[in-house]
Amino acid sequence: MNLWIGTGGMIFVWIVYLITYIFSPRYISLSKESLNLQCSLFKKSFLFKNIDYIKKGHSICGIRQFGSNGIWGYIGIIDSDKKYYTLFNNEKQIIEISYNKKIYILSCENSKEVIEKVNIII
Question: Could you tell me the CA-to-CA distances from 118 to 3, 36, 37, 55, 71 in Å, in that order?
Answer without folding.
Answer: 54, 11, 14, 10, 29
